[in-house]
Amino acid sequence: MRITALAGGVGGARFLRGLLHHLAGWPDGPHSLTVIGNTGDDITLFGLRVCPDLDTLLYTFGGGIHESQGWGRADETFAVQGELAAYGVGPQWFGLGDRDFGTHIARSQWLGQGMTLSEVTRRLAGRWGLPAGGVTLLPMTDTPVETHVVVDDGDGERAIHFQQWWVQHQAALPAKRFVVAGLNKAVAAPGVLDAIRTADLVVLPPSNPVVSIGIILSVPGVRDALRGTQAPVVGVSPLVGGAPVRGHADACLSAIGVPVTPDGVAGLYADFLDGWLVDKADEAAMAGAQIAVRAIPLLMTDVNAAAEMASEAIELGLSLRA
Ligand code: GDP
Ligand code: CA
């Protein structure tokens, strides 16, 4: 079975690690998983290109992730950031550990030598043992793009980088809308549209529907590929009991005028979504839905819990294919 997933960082990575765990124990393999990662979160810091969502996916699949934090490296130290602070060099609000710096230096060096982000990501993935397990990680586009947030805190509208809004301001500045700088020139990275079109199953993990999945959907051709694919498209709600499990998806949804409900999130995918997994606590909120809905526990407390969710997503998808 060929599975294709669209993913942001922590929510996507944890779910997909569970999916890989589940597939490893499945009969009639080998299976493959192609992950299309969000690059709207990317930012240049200290002259280095940082791709937070791609790195979270790589570290999680490769066993290098800081488990409780969900992002960054395990066993991390912060000597470089401390030295930068001593020189008065910022920003200091974006945490970059020494091991993590190694990734960004390698990436920036290769990009500087003229490699595409796809090629660079393949190289970084090699270090983490991919494509073992049949996993391929693709950036959504090789074109540098950045999600910006138009905010208005009383002095009129201005746009700031997504990371500044999310990390520095903790999404507390009132957001008006999200814009993806560079999108007008962006094309889907090699393999992205084919992976959607030729999949046996397309999965939307419980990633942020606006600033993770929504940004991938804005890449030209992606939405059309999802509408046109023969594969069932199954999504997993990022809300449990009507609220995000972590992060500020509620602020993102409110900014674009979408209710913070599983129904509201599913509505963002209405033109291509076939099946929708919601938490037991949200079952009533989906009564009367037009798509196939299954209500199960959706808390990824550990790898096994995520694997169980993935198994339900696959079953729902296969039932829709049949
Ligand atoms: P980010 O890029 O690191 O913010 O990660 P993603 O965009 O991939 O995922 C963020 C989303 O994951 C948030 O909206 C969370 O609500 C969701 N999420 C995190 N943990 C869980 C969980 O255990 N269960 C569910 N259903 N959603 C989760
Ligand atoms: Ca992200």
UniProtKB/TrEMBL annotation:
Its EC number is 2.7.8.28. Coiled coil: none annotated. It is an enzyme of class 2 (transferase). It holds the Pfam family CofD. The keyword Transferase applies. The keyword Magnesium applies. GO terms for molecular function: LPPG:FO 2-phospho-L-lactate transferase activity; magnesium ion binding. Keywords: Magnesium, Transferase. PANTHER family: 2-PHOSPHO-L-LACTATE TRANSFERASE. HAMAP family: CofD. This is 2-phospho-L-lactate transferase. It comes from Flexivirga caeni.
